[in-house]
């Protein structure tokens, strides 16, 4: 039995040799040996499936973000191969021929085999459904309908649709418990905004009509480890400092007279932007001095931390059916958020009112309502009711959109106006940009247009200042010469000093077209600089732009953002303690989800992205005898769903994002798909605009040139804003409205109603 010839003997029994090439082969012991092989193989497969069971084990209670994102297919394949060698060989032979194995470059039979084994394990026991559960969560997060779910569940590829719907609830509950614990161990910042659900009734009755549900979506942002911390007594210090400084005179000189070092920093960033437009162009792809240190970006003014310790974690709270546009609605939303966070007991309210500082982020309307409640409740009985803990923080994304709309209103003009936005929109065939809108992709299209038009203007400036006909001719200049030329462009074609110098000329020597082009360059640079500073996470650069922004909004008639910026400047200059100033700037303006350079977002944009995830896909919801359609993404809904169910499952969205990212990152075909749209080449558009501006000599002075139509003559918003703030009662009225005496008593006898 130990002979080396035993294998040959058995092989001869299975397939007896023969001397002739024709005729039937003797059957030998084929039937018996085949039966023996099948029996032994079957027993071996059963044994190996038991050994590999723990790799797929996932008890019902083991449903968490860690479990779902911890599945690594490569590691799972390695472990399954090790525990099921025979089973793997058999399935590999079934899934892949030898010829395929040699020439295959794209297909991965290992993934097919591991899923075969997973299906078999799941068929043996529902407790071995780790992959099935992961697939179900992933597919539903990507919008797979219930009918398709039922099919793949029958095939044991994924868990059932019903299980997935219940899993969403479980994940939501886990996330809510987690956030309620996290707010006691880390600093945090809430934000909220309105969200509308469209319900359409197909069988209309008096009690069943199509309508919108006005609800509020809220997010709690857990600040990262690198966040600036506040001392324990920061709340009381802030109240005392506010009371002391609330009657202080507001000094307009902080806005009208910017310190020289601030102007120097802004100019350096503008020069670098103008220089990069040239160096990043195709004409300079082979420029010999591209890596010259002179072309390095200016140092950051106040850079936020980067890396893993700078990542902000978010928790989406349960959406509540409260309309937040009114003061009463905002008050109800705040109470509901505190209730969900389990901060509504008397002890927790005392802790909040006396010891916490809670910056609250939102768009302009949200922040205005929060500030109004803080002002109107100044005489309430205790610090929690008075919202002494509150610091409203407006969102920079909405301010950026307002700034883009301000440029649109200032420079729109008509299609016949030289250098105006209308002319550029028509020349580039950019549709839908004439009438401003806050809905849809308008801001995205306008933002692209502003960058392209700006680039064309500065390319024309390079040609004008360089005395050349094409940008390629400038490659003969060294780094020092290009740096000097970029400074000349900013100083002479994009600065307030150039406009003041031009205004001193006799009227018959003034060039209105050149003046307006220079004013455009100056104004659009502020927009581009703010956009870049936000993305880079440099809050110091953002703060440097505050005087420019408040003057622009004051001159452009945007009183709401004028007040918001005045409130911010007031806080930074006088009303906030040094600790609060640093805390707000470094923790409450921007955040990053990845910690990578250039990945910073404002909190209101993060809130909008959460709302977008809530409102995208139409799904069917049934409530008793009514059939309606609700717009929701990341939602596992079907018959029996309603608004309460929506509220229950939406906190799971951050987990679902991580599950999608985890799976997508493991497969090249999924990596990056659907995360961003392809951006068409802009070369032809910018070249067309540049040629138009060069031919029109927009940036070359011509004595006495006039703009004929008043519609094409843009106002100087910044100059107008400076005059408005200095001569009107805007600042005085604002200070008088916000100056209120606040109570200081602490009465905590909560009524039964408040409980």
UniProtKB/TrEMBL annotation:
Start and end residues of each DUF6589 domain: 255-677
Family annotation (InterPro entries): DUF6589 (IPR046496)
Protein name per UniProt: DUF6589 domain-containing protein
Species whose genome carries this gene: Hohenbuehelia grisea
């Amino acid at each position: 039995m130990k002979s080396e010839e035993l294998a040959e003997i058995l092989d001869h029994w299975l397939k007896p040799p023969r001397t002739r090439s024709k005729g039937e082969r003797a059957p030998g012991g084929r039937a018996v040996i085949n039966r023996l092989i099948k029996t032994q193989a079957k027993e071996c497969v059963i044994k190996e499936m038991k050994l590999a069971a723990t790799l797929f084990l996932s008890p019902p209670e083991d449903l968490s973000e860690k479990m779902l994102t911890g599945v690594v297919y490569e590691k799972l394949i390695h472990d399954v191969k090790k525990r099921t060698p025979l089973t793997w060989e058999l399935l590999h032979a079934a899934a892949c021929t030898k010829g395929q194995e040699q020439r295959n470059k794209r297909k991965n039979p290992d993934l097919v085999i591991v899923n075969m084994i997973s299906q078999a394990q799941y068929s043996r026991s529902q407790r071995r459904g780790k992959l099935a559960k992961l697939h179900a969560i992933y597919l539903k997060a990507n919008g797979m309908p219930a009918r398709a779910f039922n099919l793949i569940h029958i095939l044991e590829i994924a868990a059932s649709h019903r299980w997935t719907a219940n899993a969403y609830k479980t994940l939501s509950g886990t996330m809510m418990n987690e956030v309620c614990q996290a707010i006691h161990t880390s600093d945090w910042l809430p934000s909220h905004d309105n969200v509308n659900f469209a319900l359409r009734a197909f069988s209309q009755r008096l009690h069943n009509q199509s309508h919108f549900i006005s609800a509020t979506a809220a997010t709690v942002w857990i600040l990262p480890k690198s966040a600036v911390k506040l001392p324990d007594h920061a709340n009381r210090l802030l109240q005392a400092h506010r009371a002391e400084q609330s009657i202080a005179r507001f000094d307009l000189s902080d806005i009208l007279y910017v310190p020289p070092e601030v102007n120097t920093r802004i100019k350096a960033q503008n020069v670098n932007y103008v220089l990069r437009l040239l160096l990043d162009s195709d004409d300079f792809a082979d420029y010999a001095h591209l890596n010259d240190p002179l072309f390095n970006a200016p140092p950051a003014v106040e850079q936020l931390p980067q890396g893993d310790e700078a990542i902000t974690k978010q928790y989406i709270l349960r959406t509540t059916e409260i309309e937040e546009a009114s003061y009463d609605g905002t008050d109800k939303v705040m109470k509901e958020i505190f209730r969900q966070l389990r901060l509504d007991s008397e002890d927790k309210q005392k802790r909040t009112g006396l010891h916490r500082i809670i910056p609250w982020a939102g768009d302009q309307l949200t922040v205005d309502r929060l500030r109004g409640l803080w002002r109107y409740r100044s005489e309430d009985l205790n610090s929690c009711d008075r919202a002494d803990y509150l610091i409203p923080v407006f969102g920079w994304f909405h301010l950026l959109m307002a700034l883009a709309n301000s440029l649109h209103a200032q420079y729109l003009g008509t299609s016949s106006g030289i250098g105006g936005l209308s002319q550029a929109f028509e020349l580039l065939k950019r549709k839908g940009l004439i009438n401003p809108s806050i809905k849809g992709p308008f801001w995205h299209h306008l933002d692209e247009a502003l960058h392209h038009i700006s680039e064309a203007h500065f390319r024309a400036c390079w040609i004008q200042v360089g005395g050349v006909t094409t940008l390629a001719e400038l490659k003969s200049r060294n780094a020092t010469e290009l740096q000097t030329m970029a400074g000349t462009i900013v100083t002479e074609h994009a600065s307030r000093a150039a406009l003041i110098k031009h205004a001193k000329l006799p009227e018959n020597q003034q060039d209105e077209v050149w003046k307006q082009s220079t004013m455009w360059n100056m104004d659009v640079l502020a927009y581009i600089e703010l956009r870049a500073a936000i993305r880079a996470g440099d809050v110091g650069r953002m703060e440097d732009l505050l005087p420019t922004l408040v003057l622009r909004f004051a001159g452009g008639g945007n009183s709401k953002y004028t007040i918001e910026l005045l409130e911010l400047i007031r806080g930074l200059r006088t009303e906030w303690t040094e600790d609060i100033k640093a805390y707000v700037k470094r923790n409450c303006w921007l955040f990053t989800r990845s910690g990578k350079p250039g990945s910073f977002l404002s909190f209101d944009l993060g809130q909008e992205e959460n709302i977008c995830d809530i409102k995208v896909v139409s799904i069917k919801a049934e409530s008793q005898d009514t059939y309606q359609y609700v717009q929701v993404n990341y939602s596992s809904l079907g018959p029996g769903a309603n608004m309460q169910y929506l509220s229950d499952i939406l906190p799971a969205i951050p987990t679902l994002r991580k599950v999608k990212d985890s799976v997508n990152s493991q497969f090249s075909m999924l990596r990056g798909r659907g995360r961003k749209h392809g951006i068409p080449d802009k070369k032809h558009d910018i070249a067309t605009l540049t040629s138009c501006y060069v031919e029109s000599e927009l940036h070359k002075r011509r004595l006495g040139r006039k703009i004929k139509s008043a519609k094409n003559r843009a106002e100087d918003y910044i100059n107008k804003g400076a005059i408005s703030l200095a001569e009107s009662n805007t600042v005085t009225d604002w200070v008088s409205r916000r100056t209120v005496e606040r109570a200081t008593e602490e009465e905590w006898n909560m009524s039964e109603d408040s409980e």
